[in-house]
Design a protein that fits this description.
single chain; alpha/beta; Rossmann fold; six-stranded parallel β-sheet; 14 helices; 12 strands
Length: 342
């Protein structure tokens, strides 16, 4: 991977510090990176206004991107990487593409087009379009590239016996709490020790969301935290755990970041995502698939140790491999998109 003296425009929303890790790694590899937040601000109100497509807020978005355009004029970039693109105006992309015909333009999504139909309007502006969602890759003829893990989570010294049998750390949304509590109760019946951390970015926003989302109406607010954990803190909790619970959104098949972080940590995974069977690293000794409509836990899963992943598989799951895939050579054949859906 040769990024030496390459100039990269990187636009992305803030997502739990991963955008900082991506920019930092690109710089370590020799690139000059100009990073800009995809949103004018990152407040709860801003995110909500973007989601409901407020015309009033669209004016603020346009002003933000007009100022950004003035900063970028005259700069010659080798690459433009956009992640998600929920709020970026199409008019900005039109100007950028017209003014930078020689720039390699790359789009990556860690959400499904069913949730963000705007993605369909973004694809034509980019030379390479990548998604973590296998059904989108097949339907819209995109490159398929799952997410990655950060070095914080790389396999470390085990704690024996582990402090927790099952750990869950995740944002409170959709049916996560309902499923999480079923798992926690089943673990309690079996005498398993658990760690559950449900996160929400703001109390008021969550209370309002709770009114309209039936999945959240039974949420015990005392079990909710409004503080983000650092990656080093999450990695330490994983280190203390035998397994990690993953609960994907019910309308997404793409694997969460948690999947890769848990496996890179050498931890077994309990997941509601049955599509994980189609990935090269799947092994039933390491991964227990849960039926979100009928949660059952096989106690035998906790009787065997984690089956160590081959170094080549672990490398493909890394951030470096993700970067190489997006910037230099797609990995469609390796990840087997054609196998994901019949």
């Amino acid at each position: 991977m040769n990024f030496v003296q390459k100039k990269i425009l990187f636009i992305s929303p803030y997502f739990f510090g991963y955008e900082k890790a991506i920019a930092a790694r690109l710089r370590e590899l020799g690139a000059e990176v100009d990073f800009y937040n995809e949103r004018p601000s990152d407040t709860i109100i801003t995110k909500g206004m973007i989601r409901v497509k407020s015309k009033l807020y669209q004016k603020k978005i346009l002003r933000y991107y007009e100022k950004l355009w003035h900063k970028l004029e005259g700069k010659n970039y080798d690459y433009f990487l956009l992640i998600k693109g929920e709020s970026i105006p199409l008019s900005f992309l039109e100007k950028f593409v017209s003014a930078n015909p020689d720039t390699s333009k790359i789009f990556y999504s860690y959400d499904a087009a069913a949730e963000y139909p705007k993605f369909l309007k973004l694809y034509p502006f980019f030379d390479s379009n990548f998604t973590f969602e296998p059904s989108d890759a097949k339907r819209y003829h995109l490159h398929f590239r799952p997410l990655f893990f950060l070095e914080d989570y790389k396999l470390s010294e085990k704690i024996s016996p582990p402090k927790f049998n099952v750990a869950f750390i995740g944002t409170a949304h959709t049916d996560r709490y309902l499923i999480g509590e079923k798992v926690r109760n089943l673990c309690s019946e079996r005498g398993f020790k658990t760690f559950f951390y449900y996160y929400a970015p703001g109390k008021l926003a969550f209370v309002l969301k709770k009114i309209f989302d039936k999945n959240l109406q039974h949420f015990d607010m005392n079990r909710l935290s409004f503080s983000k954990l650092k990656h080093s803190e999450i990695a330490e909790i994983y280190r203390e755990s035998f397994s990690v619970l993953d609960i994907n959104k019910p309308f997404q098949n793409g694997l969460t970041m948690r999947t890769f972080e848990a496996l890179a940590s050498g931890k077994k995974l309990l997941t509601t995502n049955c599509d994980i069977k189609n990935y090269p690293f799947y092994h039933p000794e390491n991964i227990h698939i849960l039926d979100r409509n009928d949660i059952e836990i096989n106690a035998d899963f906790f009787q065997t140790e984690f089956r160590k992943l081959d170094a080549s598989i672990l490398e493909k799951m890394s951030l470096d491999s993700w970067l190489h895939c997006l910037f230099f050579q797609h990995q469609d054949d390796y990840w087997g998109i054609k196998q994901c859906f019949n």
